Amino acid sequence: MSESRPVIVYDGECRFCLWSVGRIRRFDRNGRFEYLPRQTAGIEERFPVLSRSDFNTGLRLIHAGGQVDVGADAVYQIYRRLPPWNLFAGVYRIPGLKQLFRAGYGIVARNRHRFGRVECAAEACEIPSGERHKGASA
Asked: Using alpha carbons only, what angle is made at residue 138 by residues 48 and 111, rounded to the nearest 5 degrees?
C-alpha cells in the first residue's frame, strides 16, 4: 500500500467503528485512504504515535507528513476529501459547530461498544482479509 495516502486507524473490534469505516470506504472510490484496524500487527512500529493513543477518543487520521487528526477533526478531514460530502464538510468550520461536533463525537466514541446492534450492509462490518489483526491488544 502507498505510504503517501493518509491512513485511517480505527478500532477493529468495535462493530460501530467497522460500520462507520465501511461507510467511508463506500465513498472512497478513488482509494484516497489506507484503512488499518488499530489491532494490526506492527502498527505501532509503523506509527509510534499510536502507542500513546486512547481510542476512546476516536479514530485517527494519519497524514503522509505524520500529522494526526483525532475524532471529529479526523472525520472532518476525511469527508472534506470525499465527494459529495466535501460540499458539506465546511460546516465544521462554522464557529461553535466544531465544538458541538467534537462533543457529540466524544460521547459516541466513549459509548461506541453500546452500539453493537448496528445493522451492517453485507461487507460493511468485515475487515478485508489482508487487514485482519493478529494478536489483538485492547
From this structure: 105
pTM of the model: 0.81
Nearest in space to 40 (alpha carbons), one of 127, 138, 129, 134: 134
CA distance 136 to 115: 21
Q: Strand (E) positions, 1-138?
A: 7-10, 34-37, 60-62, 68-70
Residue 34 lies in a domain: yes
Query: 128 in a domain, yes or no?
Result: no
| Contacts with 85 (C-beta within 8 Å, 6 or more apart), sequence order | 27, 79
Per-residue pLDDT, 107:
92
Domain limits at 103?
7-123
Mean pLDDT by 10 residues, the chain (138 residues): 82 90 95 96 95 87 95 97 94 95 92 67 47 36
